[in-house]
Amino acid sequence: MEIQLWRELLDPYQLAVDELTVKFHHIIEEHRNQGLYSPIESVDGRVKSIVSILDKMQRKNVSMNDIEKKIEDLAGIRIICQFEEDIETVASLIQNRSDMTIKSEKNYLKHVKQSGYRSLHLIIYYTVETLNGPRKLQAEIQIRTMAMDFWATIEHSLQY
């Protein structure tokens, strides 16, 4: 696929990542400005790289026409919490929002991977406004503690 076609595919996902990270940063600020404890310590996001998309397409036997339907993590947000209890609080915050709809959940807190990986993954629907009108996209939100994030980083490094 030409680079321009990749850009057209991925640009709305970059917009989603940008908007979602701003919204979660605002939640942190709102808590702090009101003198409250924020269940969110930090937030970052990314759009999956073309190399990673191609690798996942091959591993999962996904055609070019099915990328947006079958690859749910083209846009990824990682929310880091201090304490495990905060994870459910953040999940509830997301569930109660009108601008995000939870499609599915993978709970690696209750069902820890064999490697020891722990995290809560939510696949959400999120709508962005583009030049061609609204686009309803899927995004993955990973919610974990700082300790879980440290473990995930090491596990990822060992895999690759």
Compile the SSE list and pairings.
Layout: H1 3-33, E1 42-47, H2 50-60, H3 67-70, E2 75-81, H4 84-95, E3 100-107, E4 120-130, E5 133-145, H5 146-159
Parallel strand pairs: 2-5
Antiparallel strand pairs: 1-2, 3-4, 4-5
Strand content: 25-35%
Through-space gap between termini: 25 Å
Largest sheet: 5 strands, mixed
**Which strand order spans the largest sheet, edge to edge or round the barrel?**
1-2-5-4-3
> Which secondary-structure class do the elements indicate?
alpha+beta
How many H/I helical runs? 5
Query: Unreliable stretches, pLDDT < 50, 5 or more residues?
Result: none
Gross morphology: globular
Describe the protein in words.
- The protein is of the alpha+beta class.
- 45% of the residues lie in helices and 28% in strands.
- It is built from five helices and five strands, in the order H-E-H-H-E-H-E-E-E-H.
- The protein has a five-stranded mixed beta sheet.
- Strand 4 and strand 5 form a beta hairpin.
- The protein is globular and about 50 Å long.
